[in-house]
Amino acid sequence: GSSGSEDEAGPGAAAAAAAAQKREERLRKFRELHLKRNEARKLNHLEVVEEDKRLKLPANWEAKKARLEWELKVEEKKKECAARGEDYERVKLLEISAEDAERWERKKKRKNPDLGFSDYAAAQLRQYQRLTRQIKPDLEQYERLKEQYGEALYPTSNSLLHGTHVPSKEGVDRMVADLEKQIEKREKYSRRRPYNDDADIDYINERNAKFNKKAERFYGKYTAEIKQNLERGTAV
């Protein structure tokens, strides 16, 4: 009788132990999910705070930050070169590859492209910038004039300037040479005329003229005979 009760108690105890183990495992998974949810909530909050900070920053903040980091690297490199007794510009040139040098040279050439004529003010400004780039100041002459005239070299609203300046012969020759070069260039320039006065007028406005030119370019060889017959009045 006692052995039978032990056999009945054995499976019941095993089932209870299995149920307790399964409950413990579920509780453990629940705690893990709870911890992951809290961690995700913290990360989302941090991301919202960071995004709010980024939105409050200026629009070009990333470019400014990259520029400042680059300047700091350059300053550190200069200090390292100075500590080693090396020339920073020479070291920088040695580190530039041939491909980068060619790319920068092409970029420099595209920096001031000729955008054509927009208005007279822009054309005058480009001419002024071109002429000023050609000027090479004579610093020795400037120092001599500064010693000779002193404060009078820097005029004010009360200074009398008319008739006081006598240009040098070299300056006059340089101006004459530049004017002759401009005249020669202007003589070679031929203004492109939008209309040919001798051509037949087969359009009613500028837009129609462009359309007729395009049609003539694509279909002119097919419609030449029809056009001649219409002009002669012999078209069927």
UniProtKB/TrEMBL annotation:
Record keywords, A-Z: mRNA processing, mRNA splicing, Nucleus, Spliceosome
GO cellular component, one term: catalytic step 2 spliceosome
A Pfam family that the UniProt record links to this protein: SYF2
Keyword hit for Nucleus: yes
BP GO terms, sorted: mRNA splicing, via spliceosome
Region (Disordered): 1-21
Keyword hit for Nucleus: yes
Function statement: Involved in pre-mRNA splicing as component of the spliceosome.
Family of the protein in this entry: Belongs to the SYF2 family.
Subunit structure: May be part of a spliceosome complex.
Protein name per UniProt: Pre-mRNA-splicing factor SYF2
Gene coding for it: Syf2
